[in-house]
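can u do me a favor
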């Protein structure tokens, strides 16, 4: 297959709103031609600007508990990690963290994330959600793992607007291996419940997991497109030393950074109106392997008039991504939210974290949206239009 033909077919399919063929998607994912990445990136950026505008959305994230009943092989919060220092913020501490953050920047979304903490009273989180919604002019997104429908309903009733629950991989055997304490059916059922309850739903994958193949990635992308997600996210896998996958090393981390960007661009083309973050994990992995810049990313930066930054998130924002997450968890808790190395602790005081993120955005020549950044599908749904 000639790569230019596959790309032409891919572009004309997405223009017509058709899901491109499995063969074409797989071929494009696996290719290493800089010109193809440039073409994908330009197209993804113009689709994003056309369907959502040029501005980017900031989401302030509060990591309120790192207790977890799951035992995922890739995650530093897994219950078998006895070396993790566990913490749990009270509902008052959550609200106070949001209030403090709002004084530094008028965030229009707060994301409340945690491990799957069996001892956190759902009513307590409901109180925190209601208080944030009453006090701050902002949306609330939850990212707390799998919960029964009654609990998800309680949180929705208390004002939660959105929910992030990544399916991580659609490869069922790999899922079973990596997430031994849950099942694919359970996680997917939970995503369906979230939709039924009227949440704006985000999902996505980890890229570069051992055992993942380009074939399974095509299935992941296809599933994301078919799910009609409101938000879609792709982050590179960063091994954590205190997990069974701690010794795993990517053969080429710079290429994994570039591949994350390639898949972000493809996702944008498959889901033109979804909100797509330039993920934190991408920022962490890129900063420790600046050689990702070589080749097409340097060229794209030049075309877009960007100063090359070791943080690949600025490039990601000109190839389809339109969201940045800013960690506003108080530092003494944040140091223990150790999902993967480089994530926790390194960021300093909340003031500095916010200032650095705003700097990244302005150095990329981008403006920040002042609206909540709801999913356009969702806005149409509630105003009675077509979805
Ligand atoms: N308990 C919640 C939130 C999990 S943390 C849940 O299960 O949904 C948020 C995301 O971090 C996960 O969905 C996963 O995609 C990502 N993650 C976890 N460990 C990681 C690692 N080692 N490298 C990269 N991303 C990781």
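np, heres the sequence
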């Amino acid at each position: 297959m000639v790569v230019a033909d596959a790309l032409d077919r891919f572009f004309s399919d997405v223009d017509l709103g058709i899901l491109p063929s499995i063969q074409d998607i797989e071929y494009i994912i696996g290719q290493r031609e800089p010109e193809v990445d440039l073409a994908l990136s330009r197209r993804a950026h113009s689709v994003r600007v056309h369907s959502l505008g040029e501005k980017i959305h900031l989401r302030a994230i509060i990591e309120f508990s790192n207790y977890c009943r799951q035992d995922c092989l890739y995650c530093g919060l897994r219950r078998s990690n006895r070396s993790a220092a566990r913490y749990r913020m009270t509902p008052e501490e959550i609200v106070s963290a949001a209030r403090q953050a709002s004084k530094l920047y008028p965030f229009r979304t707060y994301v409340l994330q945690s491990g799957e903490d069996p001892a956190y009273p759902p009513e307590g989180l409901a109180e925190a959600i209601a208080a944030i919604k009453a006090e701050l002019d902002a949306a609330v997104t939850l990212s707390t793992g799998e919960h029964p429908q009654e609990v998800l309903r309680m949180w929705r009733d208390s004002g939660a607007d959105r929910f992030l629950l990544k399916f991580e991989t659609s490869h069922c055997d790999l899922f079973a291996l990596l997430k031994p304490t849950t099942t694919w059916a359970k996680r997917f059922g939970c995503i369906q419940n979230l939709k039924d309850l009227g949440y704006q739903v985000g999902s996505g994958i980890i890229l570069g997991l051992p055992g993942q193949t380009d074939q399974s990635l095509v299935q992941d992308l296809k599933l994301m497109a078919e799910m009609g997600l409101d938000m879609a996210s792709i982050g590179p896998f960063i091994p954590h030393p205190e997990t069974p996958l701690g010794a795993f090393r990517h053969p080429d981390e710079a290429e994994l950074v570039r591949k994350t960007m390639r898949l972000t661009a493809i996702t944008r083309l498959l889901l033109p109106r979804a909100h797509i973050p330039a993920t934190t994990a991408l920022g962490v992995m890129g900063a420790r392997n600046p050689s990702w810049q070589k080749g097409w990313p340097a060229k794209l930066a030049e075309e877009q008039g960007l100063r090359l930054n070791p943080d690949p998130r600025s490039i990601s924002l000109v190839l389809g991504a339109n969201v940045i997450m800013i960690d506003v968890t108080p530092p003494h808790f944040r140091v223990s939210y150790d999902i993967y190395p480089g994530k926790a602790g390194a960021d300093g005081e909340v003031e500095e974290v916010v200032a650095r993120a705003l700097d990244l955005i302005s150095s990329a020549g981008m403006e920040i949206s002042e609206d909540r950044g709801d999913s356009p599908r969702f806005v149409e749904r509630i105003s009675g239009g077509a979805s």
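Residues 74-75, 113, 115-116, 143, 145, 165-166, 168, 206, 235, 237-238, 240, 281, 339-340 surround S-adenosyl-L-homocysteine (CB under 6 Å). hope that helps!!
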